[in-house]
Amino acid sequence: MEKQKFYEKKWFAIIMLLFFAPVGIFLIYKYQHFSKKINLVLSVVFGTLFIIGVVSGSGEQTEQTVVSEETKKEKQEQIKAEEVAAEVKVEQEKAKEEKKKAEAEQKEKEEIDNLLTSFQIVSEDVVSNSNGVIPDINIKHHDNFFQVDVFC
After folding, report:
1. pLDDT tens digits, 24-52
2. Residue 29: which residues within 8 A CB-CB, separation 6 or more?
């Protein structure tokens, strides 16, 4: 009597039917582990389950692929939106800085105008109190202050 190889045994054919039906179906017919009627029933049942598994498995891959592509598109759109938002924020910050700069320049101009008006009033007082001598008034603007020199 010859020793049977593991793939010729009934238990291996049943395991293959459960995990990979085409091989299991081949083995139950090749080594005649069951009667023809049982072989036919097992072939139909496990063959159908295998086909359903293959078809539904490929559908999941397609759905996963579609979901992956949608997720990728959503991420790209989100990145674009974030870039646009960042650009808008930069533009807003630039506009704020320009507005602050313009306000500071306007304020400085108003201060200079006020000081010049004050100097004009002071110089008129000096001229009116100088007994007919016209004083020499010299105004110099430095970074943070004005220097006024009055010579009679």
Report:
1. 999 999 999 899 999 999 999 999 999 99
2. 39, 43
90 pLDDT above the threshold of 70: yes
Residue for token pair 């498995």: 57
Q: Please name which of 112, 127, 146, 118 lies closest in space to residue 138, comparing C-alpha atoms.
A: 146
- pLDDT above 90 covers what percent of the chain? 51
Cα separation, 122 vs 20, whole angstroms: 107
Determine the Cα–Cα distance for residues 136 and 146; give it in Å rounded to an integer. Answer: 16
Burial profile 104-141: b = 16 or more Cβ within 10 angstroms, e = fewer: eeeeeeeeeeeeeeeeeeeeeeeeeeeeeeeeeeeeee
- Scan for tokens 């086909």, then name that residue: 51
Give this prediction's pTM: 0.40
Residue 136 pairs in a beta bridge with 151
Say what the pLDDT of residue 2 is: 77
Alpha helices in the chain (DSSP H): 10-19, 21-30, 36-128
- Of residues 17, 74, 88, 23, the one with CA closest to residue 46: 17
C-alpha distances (whole Å) from 53 to each of 61, 65, 66, 134, 142 are 12, 18, 20, 110, 88
